[in-house]
Design brief:
The complex is a heterodimer of chains A (1012) and B (206).
Chain A: H1 6-13, H2 19-31, H3 33-43, H4 46-52, H5 66-77, H6 91-102, E1 114-116, E2 119-127, E3 131-138, E4 143-150, H7 152-157, H8 161-171, E5 181-186, E6 192-197, H9 204-209, H10 216-235, E7 238-239, E8 248-253, E9 256-261, E10 268-269, H11 291-295, H12 302-318, H13 327-336, H14 342-345, H15 351-360, H16 372-384, H17 395-405, H18 407-412, H19 416-424, H20 426-434, H21 437-462, H22 466-484, H23 491-509, H24 515-534, H25 538-558, H26 563-582, H27 586-606, H28 611-630, H29 634-654, H30 659-679, H31 682-702, H32 707-726, H33 730-750, H34 755-774, H35 778-798, H36 804-822, H37 826-845, H38 854-872, H39 875-880, H40 885-902, H41 906-918, H42 924-948, H43 959-975, H44 983-995, H45 1004-1011
Helix pairs in contact in A: 1-3, 10-12, 10-16, 12-15, 15-16, 17-19, 19-20, 19-21, 21-22, 21-23, 22-23, 22-24, 23-24, 24-25, 24-26, 25-26, 26-27, 27-28, 28-29, 28-30, 29-30, 30-31, 30-32, 31-32, 32-33, 32-34, 33-34, 34-35, 35-36, 36-37, 36-38, 37-38, 38-40, 40-41, 40-42, 41-42, 42-43, 42-44, 43-44
Chain B: H1 14-18, H2 24-44, H3 49-66, H4 79-97, H5 109-116, H6 119-139, H7 144-155, H8 160-167, H9 171-193
The chains are: A mainly alpha (1012), B mainly alpha (206).
Chain lengths: 1012, 206
């Protein structure tokens, strides 16, 4: 046979030949060495041959080293979304533990597994990746402990150092929220082990798996406790590195179950000294690892733990970890994706708690909580119902992030305008654009300023020049104060700018400490508080101030000698005292003002050339004098104001061109003049108030746009008008009052959001009314009063939740009512009284009305009773106005009843009370309050009867009268027990009942229960 | 006779599959294949078991991070080279951490680092390990006779005539067996490592 073609040989190798052909070819091959050689070459694979090399090849089952196999199991088979660091016991595992047990000495006690030094090992209670945990009895100290023994398979390959280090590290942490370590030792058999506190309440993971009901409060408490424990760990320079629900144990305590941080298997020292023995590999449980830890395991720092704890909180709230998947998926996602909001998985998660959670697990470490303590504090704030420090990622920031990602798109919006729309939002931008011309120029200036700052900030971030960013933000905050605070129409812009600054600051707060950063933050918080205060959000303002104070105090404590620290602290305290002062809480305000003055006096002394320090000192001195005045301590106040004027004169001599100090001088004159008006020293008063107005006139000539100068002048004119009116210089008084009013009106028209000025317009009208009244110009007085009432009414409409405006409105309408009746305008008077009723209702329903401030209602009501007397004189009037009369009559009767009771006319009171019950009132609030008034009336009756059995009129009352009154009283109180202000009444009734020897209507026990 | 003819082209490359983050099987397989390979390499570089396991874990997680982002792309070079780079990087890290590269050697520190990247050793280690594993993985796909022909011929380096004689088969069958197993082996190696392109698909087609 002729030698075959290569194609035939290839076909043979591929099995592509027919059987007969193959047979034939096979026979040829047996004898043809050439073809054998050819076939050998064709069947060969030179590359594989190369791979094979020349050495021997092992084809038996490849043996995998146990340590390697453990790593493979860890990496390959774990569902990484569930933490189970080789938690599932395998037969191998059982065998290994068996060998561990064999290492124990034999115990002579029944039921013991074995003996390890002086510990009787009772039973195995758990096992982790590194250790097995037993319950044991410490025979020396006679207590139950947990014994943690290093896994036997690790003993060989593992230097004991890591294990011992864990124990030593842990032993240094003494904190109620960290599992205590009692001791560490190596047994005779060579087992390193740790004796530690036995915590028996299971872990957070167990509690989650038991599917206890969704309880965000409990969760927040536990996580807050764990964070507190974590902080203690961090304080010692340790990093936990494996925070997860199964490592947070629950211990029973007198305050319910508390969380304790455990399993410091991966703890290592943050300072790197001990790193030589650390392995530097990814240890921990992937689902709880922070992005930066995944990127570089050696860079783990406290904030990685905060992240992990955030994930634990997330899981507790939603039942899910934020990222799931196999290890590569998971690591990818953690490194790349934004965590979902917990509320997107469970809408029952409270909004603020969700915000806290997202802050803790922010992708950027610098935007997480600075420390575990901050995390814990914020959770506690939430638990106490206080405003939290974490803020949701603002919409403009999201826009910014978005536009950074989509630069081309952003560019399409055009340059600055587009950026501005993106930053401040379309509506704000439109609102600004639509305002009057000057304001728009102003606003655009601001917006450009803002845009610049944002760009600067971005640039700074890009180049990682933190200081540049801080400086930029600092100058932003300063500009808000120096350029905008005294400009009209800038409240929303100021607020937005400060928010910008704060969120920018928060972003760079993280890496390292910087006093200039903190100072800027403090300043920003103070400014924001001011803005909020202007917007009428007193509570929020106060929380900004107290936040600023606590930050400032921290800096101050760290370095009490730093002028900056002193200044910051004084400023933050001053703002809080101001809020107290405005709320008439002088007892709260005064000590703070005094402390501020002390600080500022030192500051002014140490910097005699700093006009600002002098100004600061002056204004705190001024406030203390004010409080003397408000408290009617006139002689003290007079002296204090005199000193302030002297100080201000000295300061203006020293700094003749300083407008702020000039302003201070004007205010000092005004305060003194006002005081003198009060005490009747009209001559001096007139002189000083005129001085004050002159100072302000000069200043306004220099700086006509300055709002605060105008505000001051308006106020001073108001005081002067009053004085002139008292001096019966009516023409001058009217003129001055009108000037004050028009100043306020012009300021207000520039700044529609400024409620304070609106309020002042109302009081200015009121002043004008008084001036006209003094001048006996009735119709002018009437129209001014009507204007005043209208102003207050508008404020009520704009701010329905504020309680102070309805009070003012009620008073204004009441005055109006009296004046109208006096002038014979009865129908209008009725209208006014209707308004009174309306605003009384408004007052009681206003959300921030002081709970239980019922006295004001009674006071207003009694005013209305007097009004009723006027109305009743014209009975025909009442008949004609059916819609208002019943309610007015009702209120009249209510207070008549109260009056009767107060005067001891029990019969009359009871009779009126019954009538009130028969004819219900259509105003729900009046109806509810009437009950209380009735109860109080009856209680007065009971008191009268119990004392002597007769009332002031000498009328004798029977026991049945008494029990009727008592019954009625208790009955009513029961009905309205939901009102917070009924408790004192209930107690009063009980005391009355005790005094009288009458048969108890309510058993004591019954009563106590009801009181609860 | 065709019973033990394996399919050659049905297995998509493991490395390609790894790009699909949802493919958990691929990941598990990848770890099972490469963890022992890297582990034993580290051991051969005088690392202790636990250290070798740590470094291997680090390499694998680095790989897992890089794969979906296409840091490794077959057109830029071979997987084994890239894996070698990653492995040596982690080894270097490890040595740095454990201070095995000391300061006083900084004069010839460059040499040290180059020594670490011992490409020659790495390549032969990679080849042998992968080949052994691939051989083991495909063994069960073949009939006992086919396999022992291949084992004796290719692994134990017996001469074809010897094998034919002692197995009492004709010489042609010996080459057919060898050819079939090697083809399968090649496809397995390709599947596992993206190395060795399939013969016949790249250069066999017109």
């Amino acid at each position: 046979m002729v030698c075959p073609d290569s194609s035939d040989l290839i076909a043979l190798l591929d099995g592509a030949l027919l059987e007969t052909q193959a047979l034939e070819l096979g026979q040829h091959l047996e004898t043809c060495v050439v073809c054998q050689h050819r076939l050998n070459q064709l069947s060969d694979d030179t590359e594989l041959q190369q791979w094979r090399g020349t050495g021997p090849i092992h084809v038996s089952q490849p043996t995998v080293h146990a340590t390697c196999q453990a790593m493979i199991d860890r990496l390959a088979n774990r569902d990484t979304s569930v933490e189970s660091l080789s938690n599932t016991p395998t037969t191998d595992d059982a065998r290994r533990i068996e060998s561990l047990l064999r290492g124990f000495e034999t115990s002579s006690f029944d039921g013991d597994i074995g003996l390890l030094e002086h510990y009787r090992i009772r039973r195995q209670i758990g096992q982790g990746g590194m250790a097995v945990v037993f319950e044991a009895i410490d025979m020396q100290l006679d207590r139950v402990v947990a014994i943690k023994v290093l896994r036997p398979e690790l003993i060989a390959s593992f230097s004991h150092e890591r294990f011992i280090r864990e124990a030593k590290a842990l032993a240094g942490v003494k904190h109620p929220n960290v599992v205590s370590v009692y001791g560490v030792s190596v047994s005779k058999g060579g087992f390193p082990f740790i004796a530690m506190e036995l915590v028996e309440g299971g872990s957070l993971r167990d509690s989650m798996e038991c599917q206890e009901s969704f309880d965000p409060h409990q969760t927040a408490q536990w996580i807050s406790q764990a964070a507190a424990g974590l902080h203690a760990v961090h304080q010692l320079g340790l990093i936990h590195r494996d925070i997860k629900p199964s490592n947070i144990l629950l211990a029973d305590s007198s305050n319910g179950r508390i969380a304790k941080l455990a399993d410091f298997g991966l703890v290592r020292f943050a300072n790197g000294v001990q790193q030589a023995t650390a392995t530097g590999v990814l240890l921990g449980t992937p689902a709880y690892m922070s992005p930066e830890y995944i990127a570089d395991p050696d860079a783990s720092e406290p904030r990685c733990d905060i992240y992990s704890l955030g994930v634990a909180l997330f899981e507790m709230l939603t039942g899910e970890v934020p990222f799931r998947g196999t290890i590569p998926t998971l690591l990818q996602r953690i490194g790349r994706d934004e965590a979902p909001s917990p509320r997107s998985l469970n809408d029952r998660v409270p909004f603020d708690l969700g915000t806290i959670c997202l802050k803790a697990m922010h992708r950027e470490p610098s935007r997480r909580y600075e420390s575990a303590e901050h995390f814990s504090d914020d959770l506690n704030r939430w638990l106490r119902g206080e405003p939290i420090r974490a803020r949701p990622i603002s919409s403009w920031e999201r826009t910014l992030n978005w536009s950074r990602r989509n630069r081309r798109l952003a560019a399409m919006f055009g340059t600055v305008a587009g950026l501005l729309v993106a930053l401040v939002g379309l509506s704000t931008y439109a609102a600004i654009s639509n305002s009057i011309a000057e304001r728009r120029i102003q606003a655009e200036k601001v917006l450009v300023l803002r845009a610049n700052h944002n760009l600067e900030l971005e640039a700074a971030k890009a180049t990682r020049q933190r200081q540049v960013a801080i400086d930029a933000l600092n100058s932003l905050v300063t500009k808000v104060q120096t350029e905008l605070a005294s400009r009209p129409g800038t409240i929303p812009i100021r607020q937005a700018l400060l928010e910008t600054a704060l969120s920018g600051l928060e972003r760079i707060t993280a890496d390292g400490e910087s006093s200039s950063l903190d100072a800027t933050s403090i300043e920003a918080h103070i400014r924001k508080g001011e803005v909020l205060d202007l917007l009428g959000q007193t509570k929020n303002a106060m929380s900004e101030f107290s936040l600023a104070e606590s930050m400032a105090r921290k800096l101050f404590d760290a370095d009490p000698s730093s002028l900056q620290s002193q200044r910051n602290l004084a400023n933050a305290m001053m703002m809080q005292a101001e809020v107290h002062r405005k709320a008439f809480a002088y007892d709260l305000a005064l000590p703070i003002f005094e402390r501020v003055r002390e600080l500022r006096s030192k500051l002014a002394e140490s910097a005699p050339n700093d006009s600002q320090a002098t100004h600061a000192f002056l204004s705190s001195t001024q406030r203390i004098a004010d409080i003397d005045y408000y408290r009617n301590d006139f002689s003290k106040a007079e002296k204090a104001y005199g000193e302030v004027v002297a100080l201000a004169l000295k300061a203006t001599d020293l700094f003749p061109n300083d407008r702020v100090l000039q302003h201070d001088l004007g205010i000092a004159y005004e305060r003194l003049g006002t005081l003198e008006t009060t005490v009747g020293q009209y001559t001096q008063a007139s002189q000083h108030l005129n001085n004050a107005c002159d100072v302000m006139d000069r200043l306004i000539a220099l700086d006509p746009d300055n709002n605060s100068f105008q505000m001051s002048l308006a106020y001073m004119a108001n005081r002067l008008a009053y004085l002139q009116s008292e001096l019966e210089e009516s023409a001058a008084a009217t003129k001055t009052a009108k000037r004050s009013l028009s100043l306020y009106q012009s300021i207000s028209s520039q700044d529609p959001l400024d409620t304070d000025t609106k309020l002042k317009i109302g009081t200015s009208w009121n002043r004008l009314y008084q001036v006209h009244m003094n001048a006996r110009e009735w119709s002018e007085a009437l129209s001014a009063l009507q204007q005043s009432a209208d102003s207050f009414e508008e404020l009520c409409r704009l701010y329905p939740t504020a309680s102070k405006y309805p009070v003012l409105a009620i008073e204004a309408y009441q005055l109006l009512f009296e004046l109208q009746l006096r002038m014979g305008e009865c129908p209008k008077g009725l209208n006014s009284i209707r308004k009174c009723v309306q605003f009384m209702e408004r007052y009681v329903t206003a959300s921030d009305a002081v709970a239980g401030n019922y006295d004001l209602g009674i006071e207003v009501g009694s005013k209305m009773v007097r009004a009723m007397e006027l109305i009743q004189a014209k009975e025909d009037l009442l008949k004609g106005s059916t819609d208002i009369a019943p309610d007015v009559l009702f209120i009249a009767r209510m207070f008549a009843m109260y009056d009767a009771a107060r005067q001891g006319d029990v019969k009359q009171a009871l009779q009126l009370g019954k009538r009130l019950e028969m004819e219900p009132c259509s105003h729900s609030f009046i109806a509810a309050n009437t009950q209380l008034v009735r109860a109080r009336a009856f209680s007065l009756c009971v008191g009268q009867i119990a004392k002597g059995g007769e009332d002031l009129n000498g009328t004798k009352h029977s026991e049945s009268d008494l029990s009727e009154a008592l019954n009625a009283c208790i009955d009513i109180l029961r009905k309205i027990a939901w009102k917070p202000d009924t408790k004192p009444d209930a107690i009063a009734i009980r005391n009355l009942r005790k005094e009288s020897d009458f048969e108890p209507i309510l058993s004591t026990q019954e009563f106590e229960e009801w009181l609860k | 006779m065709n019973r033990d003819a394996p399919e050659l082209t049905t297995h998509p490359s493991l490395l390609i599959r790894l790009r699909d983050l949802q493919d958990r099987q691929a990941w598990a397989m990848f770890v099972e294949v490469y963890a022992p390979l890297i582990f034993s390499y580290c051991r051969s570089r005088n690392l202790q078991d636990s250290d070798a396991a740590d470094v291997s874990q680090e390499v694998l997680t680095a790989v897992s991070r890089a794969l979906p982002t296409f840091e490794y792309q077959s057109e830029r070079g071979r997987f084994r080279d890239w894996l070698g780079v990653v492995t040596h990087r982690e080894l270097l890290q490890f040595w740095k951490r454990t201070n095995r590269i000391r300061r006083n050697q900084s004069a010839n520190g460059q040499d040290q680092i180059e020594n670490i990247a011992d490409t020659q050793n790495w390549e032969s280690h990679f080849h042998t390990e992968l080949l052994q594993l691939a051989i083991h993985r495909i063994q069960r796909e073949f009939e006992a006779e086919t396999w022992s022909i291949f084992r004796r011929l290719w692994i134990e380096n017996e001469s074809p005539n010897n094998v034919a004689r002692s197995m009492q088969v004709n010489i042609g069958s010996v080459y057919v067996a060898k050819s079939r197993v090697l083809k399968r082996l090649r496809s397995e190696v390709l599947m596992l490592s993206d190395d060795l392109p399939l013969k016949g698909t790249t250069d066999g087609l017109p």
